[in-house]
Amino acid sequence: ADVDAAECDVPALLVTRARGMAFAGRPPIGPLLAVLEEIHAVDSDGIPPYRRYYEPERLAVPRWATDEVLWQEAISVAHEEPPELPQRFIHRDFHPGNTLWEGAKLTGVIDWTTGSRGPAAVDLGHLRWNLAVDYGEHVADAVLPHPEHHPYYDVVTALDVVAELDTFDDRTEVERLEQHVARALAEL
Predict the structure, then answer these.
(1) Please, which residues bridge with residue 49 across strands?
(2) What share of the chain is helix, strand, coil (3-state, %, to 5)?
(3) In angstroms, rounded to a whole number, what is the distance separating the alpha carbons of residues 107 and 20?
(4) How many CA atoms lie within 13 A of 112 on its CB side?
(5) Under DSSP, is residue 4 helix (H, G, I), strand (E, B) or coil?
(6) Which of 145, 73, 152 lies closest to 118, judged by CA?
(7) H/E segment holding residue 107
(8) How far apart are CA 2 and CA 12, in angstroms?
(9) CA distance 90 to 1
């Protein structure tokens, strides 16, 4: 660990090998939430603040969208001031694909390239849209209720991915993501 950036140009945790492998199928929600609680409990003093992947001015309705008005409304929300929420240490890209498992035991969380200080709702939002796209909204809802969830970050974290999805050909996944964003917008 190089928390003070004494050896690297930024604070870093270098790992040569982590035990485990990707979970085959839908991972259990309990261990995911438990490790998020551990992550969010880490002292975030001195950690760089959370930044979105894309500033609102750079967002556009995705070409694959089936509901242009939905995405325009989501982009409008991204232009609003974020809610005032407690600052935590956050992974920033937390989802099942960034976890390692040995059977039903979660053994590691990987891909820490954007760890930062921000609302825990960022990690919950990122986890929820990934679960919604991969397994359906009922699985994304399995993390709720959660005291640090906020629908604003369900919207904003979903917008973080749309610029990278030039072609999103899986119509089921498109429908699931749009349903997820629509439900979050309705909660705001």
Answers:
(1) 117
(2) 45, 10, 45
(3) 6
(4) 19
(5) coil
(6) 152
(7) strand 105-109
(8) 5
(9) 17
Rounded-to-integer distance, Cα 147 and Cα 50, Å: 20
* Contact (Cβ atoms closer than 8 angstroms) between residue 139 and residue 131: yes
pLDDT at position 11 is: 76
Report the range of poorest mean pLDDT among 16-20, 97-101, 184-188. Answer: 16-20
Inter-axis angle of helices 171-187 and 68-78, nearest 10: 50
Place of tokens 């050896």: 7
| 50 vs 114: which has the higher pLDDT | 50
Q: Mean pLDDT across the chain, nearest whole number?
A: 92
pLDDT of 12 reads 65
- Confidence band, pLDDT 50/70/90 cuts, at residue 43: very high
